[in-house]
């Protein structure tokens, strides 16, 4: 499945051909610092294969973000709940592509997929409070702070808050 955002920016459903890129992303220390809620760790090949298989064989979705034909990050729907029509959303971009324009366009496209194609009621994103770039982007979009898990994430000797931001499909709001 391919979702085109514009002529230069495309989302492609993850597959085994993305293995090397995914491994590089997961092993990047900058990515581990702001994206993973676990302690930093070395990702093994079977972890990457299982992740790809999981997203290919469940209702959860993962896309590789391609800019001008080059893999620059990934985005995903996870903890998909078909009964309550909601999902969580995540995005990770290589450092040199972490400008607000790409992330905002991917956020907007994923929200459109969630609400218009999947007919979901809500979409949430968990953001560690040291991820300043993502906090900046999500605050500019139509998300509200739903919950804060205080000191939920340990990175080295420090603990950080995990913020849950949510947006609601306006089509489900009764006026």
Bin the strand percentage: 35-45%
How many domains? 1
Shape summary: globular
CATH class: Alpha Beta
Main sheet summary: 8 strands, mixed
What is the CA-atom radius of gyration, in angstroms?
16 Å
Main sheet strand line-up: 1-2-3-4-5-6-8-7
CATH superfamily: Gcn5-related N-acetyltransferase (GNAT)
* Second-tier CATH architecture: 3-Layer(aba) Sandwich
Q: Unreliable segments (pLDDT under 50, ≥5 consecutive)? A: none
CATH topology: Aminopeptidase
Overall pLDDT metric: 87
Task: Provide an overview of this structure.
- This protein has five helices and eight strands, in the order E-E-H-H-H-E-E-E-H-E-H-E-E.
- It has 175 residues and is of the alpha+beta class.
- An eight-stranded mixed β-sheet has the order 1-2-3-4-5-6-8-7, sandwiched between helices.
- The chain is globular and about 45 Å long.
- The termini are far apart.
Note the main attributes of this structure.
8 strands; globular; 8-stranded mixed sheet; 37% strand; 31% helix; alpha+beta; Aminopeptidase; 5 helices
Helix and strand topology:
Blueprint: E1 2-4, E2 9-13, H1 19-27, H2 29-34, H3 45-56, E3 61-67, E4 70-81, E5 86-93, H4 100-117, E6 122-128, H5 132-140, E7 144-155, E8 158-168
Parallel strand pairs: 5-6
Antiparallel strand pairs: 1-2, 2-3, 3-4, 4-5, 6-8, 7-8
